[in-house]
Write a structure and sequence with these properties.
Elements: H1 4-36, H2 49-80, H3 86-120
């Protein structure tokens, strides 16, 4: 398991580095498509670094929230199909509680990020 950690970190860091570049490429492609169709191509103001960081954090927190939501659904199904097996029910209940706490932490982190990016940085 420890051998996989550098690979996982490399993938995550690569994703974070390439995300703004992909957004820039998408903007260029959208502008080209708009000009080809005869529309005015204006992508708006360029993104600032704090706005880009805020967007990346919001995307990551949304992804984490989705994972916790999947944990809750899977655990609920496991609980319903336990058939009276107390060990399976206890595992499912523990996983639901842990996922709920994680989801709460994720929601609080999302709102802190939103507050900082809108109220303090003004983006």
């Amino acid at each position: 398991m420890k051998k996989n950690i550098p690979i996982l970190l490399t993938i995550i860091i690569s994703f974070l580095v390439l995300l703004p570049a992909q957004a820039q490429i998408d903007t260029i492609l959208i502008d080209d498509a708009a000009q080809g169709a005869g529309y005015e191509a204006s992508a708006g103001e360029p993104q600032t670094i704090p706005a880009t960081v805020g967007t990346v954090i919001q995307i990551l927190l949304s992804f984490v929230g989705t994972i916790f939501f999947i944990f809750i659904i899977v655990s609920g199904i496991q609980w319903m199909t336990a058939g009276g097996n107390e060990e399976k029910v206890t595992k499912a209940r523990t996983r639901i509680i842990n996922a709920s706490v994680g989801l709460g932490i994720t929601i609080v982190a999302y709102f802190i990020t939103w507050f900082i990016s809108t109220a303090i940085l003004g983006t």
